[in-house]
């Protein structure tokens, strides 16, 4: 065993562990190091333990990061691997997002034994989703569908679907791909109709500011294009105070040095939606995201976000 392994903090779900293993594999390859130069440390978070109600009712996104961040600030781990879409827009003092891995497919996947697509589901079908964004978008496209709360890790949700608890569910395609479960997918929802969550498909790595050893190692696996896209998306979300209580979608695309961000915000019942598209140079990613957020705020008017 190496005397001073780099300690990688992660949640314990199969998907979280797959993401931690991918990070370790990339670090091993980049620095020509053996597996025992790294230690994967599993940390149970509040979000993993609370399964009976929507996260928005008990504290939102930070529930998946709080205990892991405490371990980093205490010096028990050196870095943490997260799904970017789980990350709050404000991080604790002393911590920063210091690397991003190349982004996976950002689309949402439709899974159902009863219909090929969301639009093909029978009238009054039941769809399970714990995401306010997906719930609102489903209701917008299919007001006749009943959307029910659907918590649990990916395997739990697949089991509930197989047992007939719901007629269909929507999951991030990236997560299914990372677990080798692409064959579970019935169809994919294109981003033109169904904008993903901010950060969907992107693995981010959080570490302590000033921890030069860790920062230097991470730079070798950092993907700049993903960071630029996420800078825009997270700036957009921050303007809208993007907690788990607001149905928000956002996606930034990079074409050379030109960045385009599309954002959307919906009422939870899907009855009202506002979209915004902003473009500009990649160097202005944060400003583009902020401008899109401010424009949507103006379109929504007062009370839109709090009227539920």
Automatic annotation (TrEMBL):
Biochemical pathway: Porphyrin-containing compound metabolism; protoporphyrin-IX biosynthesis; coproporphyrinogen-III from 5-aminolevulinate: step 2/4
This protein's GO CC annotations: cytoplasm
Record GO terms (molecular function): hydroxymethylbilane synthase activity
Gene Ontology terms: biological process: protoporphyrinogen IX biosynthetic process
Keyword tags: Porphyrin biosynthesis, Transferase
Domain Porphobilinogen deaminase N-terminal: 6-215
Protein family membership: Belongs to the HMBS family.
Function statement: Tetrapolymerization of the monopyrrole PBG into the hydroxymethylbilane pre-uroporphyrinogen in several discrete steps.
The protein's name in its UniProt record: Porphobilinogen deaminase
Taxonomic source organism: Roseibium alexandrii (strain DSM 17067 / NCIMB 14079 / DFL-11) (Labrenzia alexandrii)
Gene designation: hemC
């Amino acid at each position: 065993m190496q005397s001073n392994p780099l300690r990688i903090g992660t949640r314990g779900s199969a998907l979280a562990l797959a993401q931690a293993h991918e990070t370790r594999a990339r670090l091993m390859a980049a620095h020509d190091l053996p597996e025992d130069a790294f230690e994967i440390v599993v940390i149970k978070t509040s979000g993993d333990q609370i399964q009976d109600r929507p996260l928005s009712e008990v504290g939102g996104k930070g529930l998946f990061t709080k205990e892991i961040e405490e371990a980093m600030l205490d010096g028990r781990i050196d870095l943490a691997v997260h799904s970017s879409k789980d990350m709050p827009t404000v991080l604790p003092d002393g911590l920063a997002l210091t690397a991003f891995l190349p982004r996976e497919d950002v689309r949402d996947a439709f899974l159902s034994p009863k219909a090929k697509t969301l639009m093909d589901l029978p009238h009054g079908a039941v769809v399970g989703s714990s995401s306010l964004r997906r719930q609102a978008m489903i209701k917008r496209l299919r007001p006749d569908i009943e959307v029910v709360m659907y918590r649990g890790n990916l395997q739990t949700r697949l089991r509930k679907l197989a047992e007939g608890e719901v007629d269909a569910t929507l999951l991030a395609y990236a997560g299914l791909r990372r677990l080798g479960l692409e064959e579970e997918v019935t169809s994919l929802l294109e981003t033109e109709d169904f904008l993903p969550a901010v950060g969907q498909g992107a693995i981010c790595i959080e570490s302590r500011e000033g921890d030069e050893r860790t920062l230097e190692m991470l730079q070798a696996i950092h993907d700049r294009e993903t960071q630029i896209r996420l800078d825009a998306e997270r700036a957009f979300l921050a303007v809208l105070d993007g907690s788990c209580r607001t149905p928000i979608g956002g996606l930034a695309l990079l074409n050379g040095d030109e960045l385009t961000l599309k954002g959307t915000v919906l009422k939870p019942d899907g009855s009202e939606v506002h979209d915004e598209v902003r473009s500009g140079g990649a160097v202005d990613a944060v400003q583009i995201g902020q401008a899109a957020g401010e424009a949507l705020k103006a379109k929504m008017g007062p009370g839109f976000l709090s009227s539920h």
